[in-house]
Design brief:
The complex is a heterodimer of chains A (about 180) and B (about 625). Chain A is of the alpha+beta class. Chain A has eight helices and four strands. In chain A, strand 3 and strand 4 form a beta hairpin. Chain B folds into five domains: about 110 residues, Glutaredoxin, CATH 3.40.30; about 200 residues, Rossmann fold, CATH 3.40.50; about 80 residues, Ubiquitin-like (UB roll), CATH 3.10.20.600; about 90 residues, de novo design (two linked rop proteins) (Up-down Bundle); about 55 residues, 2-Layer Sandwich (Alpha-Beta Plaits). The chains are: A alpha+beta (about 180), B alpha/beta (about 625). The structure holds flavin mononucleotide and FE2/S2 (inorganic) cluster (FES). Flavin mononucleotide (FMN) binds next to strand 10 and helix 22 of chain B.
Chain lengths: ~180, ~625
């Protein structure tokens, strides 16, 4: 079981490399109901549920591919597209909502020029919203690469993004 | 000591631990809950450890990084056990001073004490702070006193004593009797009597003798985080409760279903399970009693409906987490078709407590039909945000005003929302109702898992109804038509009203849709989905009418119905708003009052958050 949500160690395996997949499948072989855990591990390893990987998994386990997709798309946690270098998850739970988190999200949308669920073209930022992060006391809250930021405002959002762009050398490295 | 083989071993081990802990001169707890972590409490803790090490005091000071201590508003928190001094909002730089004055000495560092907003008085002891002194922290108290990653702390505090007593001094039937007499009811929302549920599962036949117990740690209600904090702060009490339940019901396997947003809770739980197994408190032949029971952890995939028990079971089975009609109830036909007992995290944590206190003592807390305490997360527009544990029957007013310290910035209270998306908004004139399962339902809300979101005059109730409906539309699993399409229709209507296109017929349409969805949905997600709309319609109809008739949003939230203006008397012409406006709707000379062109303005309110003088307002 991996610590999902903590994306501190974010170097993903490229989906062409199937050896981690074999490991994962072996580890869960014979365990009932393990498919969701297998998805979690695949996502942890590859960053998302790649189509090729899903096909391989269906073959290995003897499932229809449609069954795997039916399952994966039921759960909001699983991504079918690769994510950017930095993952920003903004809480849209009730406590955050009444403290006007929408304005924070608006700022992020404007700055990044994407809507929640999307990744910037240079694969630098992915923006998501979540139901509740369970840290409602410090609402509005968001998590960036596993680190919680509380009492957010649009201007704090902007500063945070500017800092990430600057420190990460976004323009220079682009995809990395 | 490695494995604990008998209850006598356990007692002896406990005495050894107490002696060991007694040798420390000081014990210091730093809150390591997720809230405090966002305030960098880890840095505070590490600094403290370094100083203690440098002074060569690690043999005399017992340092603990604990679970959530509740007062999240004031984090990072530190509690010094020998003198009861309680510090709030500590920075790493302040730690040295604390060590010198309050750990080595008995002096207080005034400016790090909690300051009462009422009279500016500094308060030394936790128990004297209004946030704490009306609470009765039977469960949360442990969060302050133990390191969740060290089973010895829990054992020294009497942990696993209830389990030993259950296994050796009592029968399964007797345990169920005790839980029933204590009056424990499920903390996951519906308040079903726990003892009765256990008895049904105990009596249910299993084709191969296998039965399961499950801990529901999905905690899907947005705005609630008590289950997270209990699992993070005191995982062993959940394990102990589940093991006692397994013994009472005759189950051999357990599952904890945790939502994936709670990585720290999963980490602490897995660690605790390992430690319990190592000590012989979980696994084969527990404490030499012959009971075999083990627990697995299942991490959810982010679907609200998986908090519903049949959806949760489907999810553990590795399927789409869609609820199914009941009966058969899980107690008869649950996980993999076997009798299964599901309880919430907080329910499980109450079990060892009840055995320790005795049913009669426990039943003295609370009201006639709702016993014990309930933990609420007091959040939203409230001064003291945090986790509060209160006896059932306390009034909402006491929670909001005495514990919560009222509404920030002198704003007017408007409503408190309980019960998550299945619950409702309770208005000011009902603040004196006692909080228990029945009363909350009577006023159109419900207990839910314990989120309590306070709303003030700047919260728009139509927007809140729309918010919950959007949530539910998104989370509806789609299996039954009333919920799948009904929530969507309601959302469309609410969106129209918020956009200023509502009509009077809309309100009747909402009411009639609500009645149909309630009557015909497959599970309680659909069945309770109209509650946020119905309660806001019931208590705040005038706000709906303002939106529809006068095209106004009195709270200043609904973008289509507001105009942003700058008060020329307050504006100093600093230009901050002008710079941030994304559509160049603001104009004005430097040092002269600025103004907003309503035709250009997109009402994003960025300027409001930027104005240092609070000169920009909505109308
Ligand atoms: C849509 C829906 C969501 C639910 N979510 C939760 C949840 O997050 N946590 C929980 O303990 N119970 C939840 N429940 C209630 C469970 O179905 C079940 O009643 C509960 O876990 C039983 O435990 P208890 O008797 O200890 O309360 C939910 C119910 C519904 C209908
Ligand atoms: S509502 Fe945002 S963290 Fe709970």
């Amino acid at each position: 079981m991996e610590k999902e949500g903590c994306s501190c160690n974010r170097s993903f395996v490229p989906p062409e490399d199937l050896s981690p997949l074999e490991d994962i499948v072996e580890r869960y072989r014979g365990e009932r109901g393990a498919l969701i855990s297998v998805f979690h591990e695949i996502q942890q390893t590859y960053g998302y549920l790649d189509e090729g990987i899903m096909g391989e998994l269906a073959k290995k386990l003897g499932y229809q591919l449609s069954h795997l997709y039916g399952l994966a798309t039921f759960y909001t946690q699983f991504r079918l597209k690769p994510i950017g270098k930095h993952l920003i998850r903004i809480c849209h739970g009730t406590a955050c909502h009444v403290r006007n988190v929408r304005e924070v999200t608006e700022e992020a949308k404007r700055f990044l020029n994407i809507v929640p669920g999307e990744t910037t073209e240079d694969m630098y930022f992915t923006l998501e919203t979540v139901n509740c992060l369970g840290t409602c006391a410090i609402a509005p809250v968001l998590v960036v690469d596993g680190v919680y930021h509380g009492h957010m405002t649009p201007s704090k959002m902007k500063k945070l993004l500017e800092k990430m762009v600057k420190e990460g050398g976004r323009e220079a490295s682009g995809q990395d | 000591m490695a494995r604990i083989e008998t209850p006598a071993d356990l007692e002896q081990y406990r005495l050894q631990l107490r002696e060991k802990f007694g040798k420390y001169q000081y014990a210091v707890s730093v809150c390591g809950g997720t809230g405090c972590r966002a305030y960098d409490c880890i840095n505070v803790f590490e600094t403290l450890r370094e100083i203690i090490d440098k002074k060569d005091m690690s043999h005399t000071v017992n340092l603990r990084l604990t679970g959530c201590q509740g007062f999240c508003e004031m984090g990072p928190l530190m509690f010094i056990h020998k003198n009861g001094i309680f510090y709030v909002r500590i920075s790493p730089e302040a730690v040295e001073r604390i060590v010198e004055s309050s750990i080595l000495g008995d002096e207080v560092v005034e400016e790090l004490l909690y300051k009462s907003p009422a009279d500016g008085r500094r308060i030394v002891h936790q128990q004297e702070i209004p946030f704490y002194n009306k609470q009765r922290r039977f469960l949360l108290a442990m969060n302050r006193d133990i390191d969740p990653l060290n089973i010895d702390d829990y054992i020294a505090k009497g942990g696993y004593g209830s389990l030993a007593w259950a296994l050796f001094e009592s029968s399964s039937e007797e345990i169920i009797d005790i839980i029933e007499r204590a009056g424990l009811r499920g903390r996951g929302g519906a308040g079903f009597p726990t003892g009765r549920k256990w008895r049904i599962a105990r009596q249910a036949p299993s084709p191969d003798g296998i039965k399961y117990v499950i801990c529901n740690a999905d905690e899907g209600d947005p705005g609630a985080y008590m289950d997270r904090s209990l699992l993070e702060g005191n995982p062993h009490q959940v394990i102990e409760g589940m093991t006692i339940g397994a013994y009472a019901i005759g189950a051999s396997e357990g599952y904890v279903y945790v939502r994936h947003e709670y990585p720290l809770a999963v980490h602490h739980l897995l660690e605790a399970l390992d430690q319990a197994r190592e000590k012989g408190l979980l696994g084969k032949n527990i404490l030499g009693s012959g009971l075999d029971f083990d627990i697995k952890v299942s991490v959810g995939g982010g679907a609200f409906v998986c908090g519903e028990e049949t959806g949760l079971i489907a999810s553990i089975e590795g399927k789409r987490g869609m609820p199914r009609p009941r009966p058969p109830y899980p107690a008869n036909y649950g996980l993999w078709g076997r009798p299964t007992n599901i309880n919430n995290v907080e329910t499980w944590q109450n079990v060892p407590l009840i055995l320790q206190m005795g049913a009669d003592e426990y039943a003295k807390i609370g009201t006639e039909k709702s016993k014990g305490t309930k933990i609420f997360s007091l959040v939203g527009k409230i001064n003291n945000t945090g986790l509060v544990e209160v006896p059932m029957g306390i009034t909402l007013r006491e929670i909001v005003y005495e514990i919560g310290g009222g509404i920030p910035r002198g704003k007017a209270f408007k409503a408190v929302q309980t019960g998550g998306p299945s619950g409702g908004c309770i208005p000011a004139h009902l603040l004196d109702i006692p909080v228990d399962f029945e009363r909350l339902q009577e006023v159109g809300s419900m207990m839910g898992s314990g989120g309590m979101i306070v709303m003030d005059e700047n919260t728009c109730m139509v927007d809140i109804a729309r918010y919950f409906m959007e949530f539910l539309t998104h989370e509806s699993c789609g299996k039954c038509v009333p919920c799948r399409l009904g929530t969507k229709r309601m959302l469309e209507i609410l969106t129209k009203i918020c956009d200023g296109q509502g009509t009077n017929e809309n309100l009747e349409a909402l009411e009639s849709l609500a009645a149909d969805i309630k009557a015909s949905s497959l599970c309680a997600l659909g069945g309770t989905s109209p509650n946020p709309v119905l309660t806001t319609l019931r208590y705040f109809r005038d706000e709906y009418e303002e939106h529809i008739v006068n095209k106004r949003c009195p709270a200043g939230i609904c973008q289509a119905l507001i105009t942003l203006r700058i008060d020329p008397d307050t504006c100093t012409g600093c230009g901050a708003c002008l710079k941030i406006c994304p559509v160049e709707a603001i104009s004005g000379e430097k040092k002269q009052p600025h103004s907003i062109d309503p035709e250009v303005c997109i009402r994003c309110k960025l300027c409001i958050s930027r104005c240092p003088k609070e000169a920009i307002y909505t109308e």
